[in-house]
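Model: You mentioned two targets. I'll fold them one after the other.
Researcher: Yes, keep them separate.
Model: Target one:
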Amino acid sequence: MKTSLICGGAGYIGSHMVRSLLDKGERVIVLDNLSTGRRDFVPAGALFIHGDIRDGELLDRVLTENDVNAVFLFASLIKVGESVSLPLAYYENNLVGALRVMESIVRCGTPHFIFSSSAAVYGEPVAVPITEDMPLRPTNPYGETKLAIEQMLRWASEAHGFTYGALRYFNACGAIEDATLGEVQEPETHLIPLVLDAAMGVNESISVFGDDYDTPDGTCVRDYVHVVDLALAHLLTLDALRSGGGSKIYNLGNGRGFSVKEVIEACRSVTGLPIKTVYAPRRAGDPARLVASSDRAKVELGWTPRYQSLESIVETAWRWHSKRRGG
């Protein structure tokens, strides 16, 4: 039985990854400082360690005492707007944290590393759909930290012999089918949970920032990928690395875009509830369209997203949201 260490395994995507690894029969250790994660998100069967990824001595002890075969790094600050106002905090947590993890896996001889990267590394794309070989021009500190970590990974892996996968997510969303895990963010900034909050009356309305973009209905188009499909891509990447494959970078997206208006309509359809919308001016820096090409992951990993319709994604989010809000 191989052992994986999940840094940030008490968070949204990390906890779904823990569940997937446990279902696969993996031994799983979760390391999380609970600054944004939740202890109750760590699935039964995983060993939980309350600690920080910037603690090199703790990392060394966990890796060596448990003969860890692979490290997953989900621990990250993720709010783009906050990264602009607090850039040093993002460099300290994201970049320094990743550096400490890499130093530890080199010292301990851990062979595989899988990194939770982001579509933010592309910034304003030159074209859509976005492929992995397009220019990397992040427009905020959050995206800059993700790109810097990818660059560190490249040089460190070449120098020290470990292999890695860097997975560039687009908009992670949805929840596990049994509604035991899902998304919780305070304050909430992601579109689908905000729309569902408006449906439940937690918020009075949902704001639509701009309806005059060069898109079919005038609102921004984004690529939404289900969190369970993200976890599957991580499993497939781990299998590829363990089978002797080289280091790889993959986009992970649904492959098609949905507009803000389409998301709101899907939420109305799934919930059967009215949702009040309020139109507001564009936000600075919002591209009209961000859509992934995930062809590389599909061809090389055999990854096929299970949740391809917007309604199927929203249905899982609604089950979780209803349970969490007690409705």
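Model: Target two:
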Amino acid sequence: MLDPGLLEYVTVWNRVPTNTRTNVNDPQSLAIVLQDALGTSRANQILAQLPGGGGGAGGSGGQTQYNYLVEFYLASRMTRNEFDLVADQLVATTNTTGYVEGLVNINTATETVLQCIPGIGTQYASTIVAYRLGNTTGLQSIAWLVEVIGSDAARLAGPYVTTRSYQFSVDIAAVGRHGRGYQRVKYIVDTSEETARVACRQDLSHLGWALGRAAREDLEIVANLK
């Protein structure tokens, strides 16, 4: 049995693209997104009640600068359903690198990982996991987190969370033809750019058999039949 320790809970490959989304700190572009999804009247209402006024659909600048979407969502006073309609088109950031690094996907993170996030901790981690299990189709945006743990706790968690993943690990173990040869390779696939790429390849064959006892017994049966 292998004990990977902290390796199961950390990564160096996480990043979320921002250059394909509308920055909520750009009132003119934000107005277009809101108008398309919610109509001009509701868009103007949302923009007008943002700190600084937002300038309505025309946008006047001078509004508060938002560093994360929870902060913007709370300020906008949109309903959860409204925010779910536009969340995938929005980003809240003041950096210009085109990416935000280090965010945790609250839709998939384990309870152990959730416990490490400020505002969530041991107090709300199990509550979040239980909510996800009972609401598998209602996790479109960070609005659900606000509903589950409250605005104060969500505001603390806001800088660290997202509901989308762009990097995925693939662990492949295979046996060669006629049951000869064995290899296990782990890949990290990055989809944060226009074309997916393999960010990391690691040969894990030296760690030994990973296909379970049943697969080994099946191979032995096949070998004995020859």
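Researcher: Noted. Anything on target two?
Model: The chain is about 35% helix and 15% strand.
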